[in-house]
Amino acid sequence: DAKTTQPPSMDCAEGRAANLPCNHSTISGNEYVYWYRQIHSQGPQYIIHGLKNNETNEMASLIITEDRKSSTLILPHATLRDTAVYYCIVREYNFNKFYFGSGTKLNVKP
Amino acid sequence: DAGVIQSPRHEVTEMGQEVTLRCKPISGHNSLFWYRQTMMRGLELLIYFNNNVPIDDSGMPEDRFSAKMPNASFSTLKIQPSEPRDSAVYFCASSQGLNEQFFGPGTRLTVL
I need a labelling partner for A25 at 20 to 30 A (CA). Which of A73, A99, B34, B66 fits? Predict the structure, then answer.
């Protein structure tokens, strides 16, 4: 079962930052937070993951609260191609299974 | 790297027929996953293999579904007999150990 809660949809203006929230209030100490996205029926695409520190890569930044009960994925300059369903997933460190919830449908508008 | 390769990309069959979906993982990856995606149930993990051995098949819906991984570069998911409720997009993914999973383009299955 998915251990995360995400808003079903969000809008973002092209060129602005998209901030996607995720609640994972029951997360335990050995569980990572992963973000994937799925663009229009393509296979899901890995974005970023973290344990407790904030992380940044070429695609996005991941901000995890100090108590680790929630996180935010930030796309710094959203483009139309970022329109997708974004999944926040909690995964136990030694447990190689992902549970995909409903995700957030991000609509980037011109 | 070609990424995860799945075939066929689309399959239309009639109820009762056998369906075989194929997957070639990324070279060097030792974990392989089969997922199913429907509007009603979202993306579900069916089974995953580690070093060609099935580790967890708790997501396989029933005995009509079977999966094999005869070697590190090939896996099949078979449905026999197929039913209309099996219509879905089936994704294969691979990873190197516990690292991120890379997904294939999927096979869209329609059972009439």
Answer: B34
